[in-house]
Each structure stands twice: as C-alpha cells, then as structure tokens.
Specification:
The protein has 115 residues and is mostly helical. The chain contains 5 helices and 2 strands, in the order H-H-H-H-E-E-H. A two-stranded antiparallel sheet has the order 1-2. The longest helix has 40 residues. The two termini are 41 Å apart.
C-alpha cells in the first residue's frame, strides 16, 4: 500500500452513527448536536461524544454559536479519507488478482497432470 493509513481516521469513520452524521452534515452544510440528535436515534449527549471523535481526527470543525457549537465537515480531510479508502481498495484488488492467477495456475497444472 502506498498511502499511509490513518488508523484514528478510519476508526472514526468506521462507526455507522458517525458516518450517518457526516452524511447529514454534508447534506445540510452544518449542524449542531441538537439538530443531529433530532434526526438520529441517538441521544444528544451521544451525538456530542461522536462529534468530539470526528473533530479530533479533523473530519469536522466546530464554530461556537451562542450556547451551541455548529459543526461543518472538513472536505479536505474527508477527501483524504476517501483517498486512503481508494488506495486500500486498489491494494486489495491487486492482491485478489494475484491470488486468482495463482489459483488458475494451480488448476491448469492439475488439469495437465490428469490428461
């Protein structure tokens, strides 16, 4: 794999609730823990904890607005995560192609021995 994988970033986006939160923030442009909790089957406190995780890895940034914080997705960091995912996918595709070639060679050898 050529791209370094950021385990903390992957751990953050590995959680289905956090992925759904990112989807909502991307669709809406921004949001608060309260607005997100109204649309997800999770308490506001749980949403706030998930937002801390996303903020820590740089996927969202908060702006204080009155008593709440408005969160917005950092598109550059999200693009970095997508690039990492693509790199891992490409590496696994290459591994699977190699395994397929090996398996086909073994099968060809067996077929030749049988004939």
């Amino acid at each position: 794999m050529t791209a370094a994988v950021d385990d903390d970033l992957w751990s953050a986006v590995g959680d289905p609730t956090r992925r759904r939160m990112l989807d909502l923030l991307l669709a809406d442009g921004d949001g608060t823990a309260t607005s997100l909790s109204e649309r997800l089957p999770v308490t506001r406190q749980a949403i706030a904890k998930h937002l801390v995780v996303l903020d820590r890895v740089g996927l969202v940034h908060a702006t204080p607005t009155g008593r709440e914080r408005r969160y917005r997705v950092d598109e550059a960091q999200l693009a970095r995560a997508v690039a990492q995912l693509s790199a891992v996918g490409a590496a696994w595709d290459a591994r699977l192609r190699r395994i397929k070639r090996i398996a086909e060679a073994i099968q060809k050898t067996r077929n030749q021995k049988e004939n």
